[in-house]
Amino acid sequence: MTLKNTVEVAKSCSLVAFVASCLVTWHLYQFLSNQTLSYNQSATFDELNHMTEGFWRLSTPLNKTRKAELDEMFVRYWKHQKIPVKRWGENEKCGYYNFLDSVPHSSWPRVGSWCNPEGSHPCCNNYLNGTCGEVSNQTCNCSQCVDTRLYEHAELSNWITKDQSFSWNKYVGEDACQVIERSPFKDIYFIGDSFMRNMYTVLLMILANDFEKGPWTINMTNQQRELCVEMNTLFYPACRPLATNGQKLIQKSCVDKNFNVSFKWWPNNSNGRNFVKLVQNLSGKRGSLLLLGVGYHETILPAK
């Protein structure tokens, strides 16, 4: 993923998590498509790379109503978390290292400033430390440039693979259930940080074929029932306790469910012992799949 892509991903983690969870299901399907367990790993991972290399293509015509709903949802969350609502400053400085003023009493890390996509200077000439400028090849099309007019919520776009001879199916509901039920995996663990939690949460939505209340659990509070609906489930801290164990769901996702999906919040190497212990406990047992992902909490920053 390029540095420019991170601008878009930061605005669209919900759909990215959906794509990632679809890819997990797709990868299980690819596993089953092979006749033996000793399948060609290099070929399979080449296919996976082809599926994850691509770009978002904005759907046309633009759904302005949906865009307004998404804008409102993100602004509401930013205000709740004391994140700057306006994404550009008055001095027309831009880039990861040109920080916006922090909201008073905010504990959120400082965020970079970008250019106004609807203004007269929409292009940043350097994504690390640049200046917003008028539309030109020097400010919009160089290798270090960011043309903010090109970025929109991924929910308003379609994912196009770089190699369009590769395509993937959006397994939802019973189809997704059958893919996993037919696989050799009976215990699936998502382990890591918030992105892994979102992958896990969206997989629950996919299996339940319910993107509004799919991850709801039997011990939810009234506050969570009001707040944790649709994409809000992926953002708000109050919704994070929902992502624990698939066996505690209110809505049983699969008719003949013979597997369990769970999440472990182990976001960095300080949880290494827990991970090793889990692996040791599973050693020698068939049917376990561990999906591990860490990064941000190890100070792996997008600008580096």
Automatic annotation (TrEMBL):
The keyword Transmembrane helix applies. It comes from the Eukaryota. The keyword Transmembrane helix applies. The chain crosses the membrane at residues 12-32. Keywords: Membrane, Transmembrane, Transmembrane helix. This is Uncharacterized protein LOC100182421.
